[in-house]
Amino acid sequence: MKKAMKNYGIIAIVLIAFTFAFSNSAVANEEGPNKHTTELKFIGNKENQPVFELSLKSTVEDEYTVTFRDEYGNVLYTEKFKGAAISKKFLLKSEEFGDAALNVVVKSKNNGSTEVYSINRSHTYVEETVVNKVK
């Protein structure tokens, strides 16, 4: 009887060892499998008009909708782009929006995520353009 109990104990230990050896641990990942990054930056002026560069990078091909809106919600520009690594430059005619704040909305179709950037301009002796990531 003692020998049978000893065998069951060894079998239980072996089963537990195999369970730990061959188990897969699932690690939570905030980014998910379709990670993407967006970046909007001010790169300079061309003929006194501000130029911005939008970089979209994803691990898989995605479709993005980029929309420029003024502070009142009016759509100034919208376009769709497809790809895994996209870089676009935008020249904004400053007389169309003056010193009003602009919002740039970037929507990802695959991820369903939305990122919003705010463009604020101020005039002093030197023109400053600030790009902030809102979402």
Task: Walk me through this protein's architecture.
By secondary structure, this protein is of the alpha+beta class. The protein has one domain (36-133): Immunoglobulin-like (Sandwich). The protein has helices at 2-21, 94-97; strands at 36-46, 49-70, 75-91, 102-108, 114-122, 128-133. Strands 1, 2, 3, 4, 5 and 6 form a six-stranded antiparallel sheet that branches. It is elongated and about 85 Å long. It starts with a helix and ends with a strand.
Descriptive tags:
about 140 residues; alpha+beta; Immunoglobulin-like; six-stranded antiparallel β-sheet; about 55% strand
Q: Calculate the terminal CA-CA distance, rounded to whole Å.
A: 68 Å
CA-based shape: elongated
Top-tier CATH class: Mainly Beta
Q: Number of helix segments?
A: 2
CATH-defined superfamily: Macroglobulin (MG2) domain
CATH topology: Immunoglobulin-like
Q: Which regions have little confidence, pLDDT < 50, spanning 5+ residues?
A: 26-30
Number of E strands: 6
Q: What is the number of domains?
A: 1
Which sheet architecture does the biggest sheet show? 6 strands, antiparallel
Q: Which CATH-level-2 architecture?
A: Sandwich
Judged by helices, strands and strand pairing, the structural class is: alpha+beta
Rg (CA only)? 27 Å
Q: What portion of residues is helical?
A: 10-25%
Please provide the ordered H/E string of secondary-structure elements.
Answer: HEEEHEEE
Mean pLDDT metric: 78
User: How much strand content do the residues show?
Assistant: over 45%
